[in-house]
Amino acid sequence: MNTIIKKPLITEKATAASETRNRFTFSVAKSANKIEIKKAVEKMYNVHITKVHTMTYGGGKSSVKHTNKGIVTQPNNPWKKAIVTVADGETIDLFNNI
């Protein structure tokens, strides 16, 4: 895969969206914008993208370790998700390499 698209996200919600609304979910680079994501998906899967929605997760502090010194905080691992809508009549086969 290229540096913009890290991997497709396969969850129950993402699979339902791909089957009913022709939307596919990918984990992408944090620095990628919508135009770069659109071009990368179109080039990789040879489809036409109509919409791109992005969401950024994480980046805050997580206090999960309770040690002898007290509660130790550590940063969360920030990541970015993109939901792309493919044009009508086209689809992306995410399972062809299995």
**Unreliable parts:** none
Strand coverage percent? 35-45%
Shape: elongated
Mean pLDDT: 89
CATH uppermost class: Alpha Beta
CATH architecture: 2-Layer Sandwich
N-to-C series of helices and strands: EHEHEEEE
Secondary-structure-derived class: alpha+beta
Helicity range: 10-25%
Tell me the major beta sheet: 4 strands, antiparallel
How far apart the termini lie comes to 15 Å
CATH superfamily: RRM (RNA recognition motif) domain
Instruction: Count the DSSP helices.
Output: 2
Number of domains: 1
Strand runs, count: 6
What would your notes on this structure say?
It is a single chain. The chain has 98 residues and is an alpha+beta fold. The protein is built from 2 helices and 6 strands. The chain has helices spanning 12-20, 34-45, and strands at 5-8, 23-28, 49-57, 61-67, 70-75, 79-86. Strands 1-2-6-3 form a 4-stranded antiparallel beta sheet. The protein has a two-stranded antiparallel sheet with strand order 4-5. The longest helix has 12 residues, at 34-45. The mean pLDDT is 89.
Please summarize what this structure is.
The chain has 98 residues and is an alpha+beta fold.
Topology of this structure?
Elements: E1 5-8, H1 12-20, E2 23-28, H2 34-45, E3 49-57, E4 61-67, E5 70-75, E6 79-86
Antiparallel strand pairs: 1-2, 2-6, 3-6, 4-5
List keywords for this structure.
2 helices; Alpha-Beta Plaits; alpha+beta; two-stranded antiparallel ribbon; 21% helix; 4-stranded antiparallel β-sheet; 6 strands; 98 residues
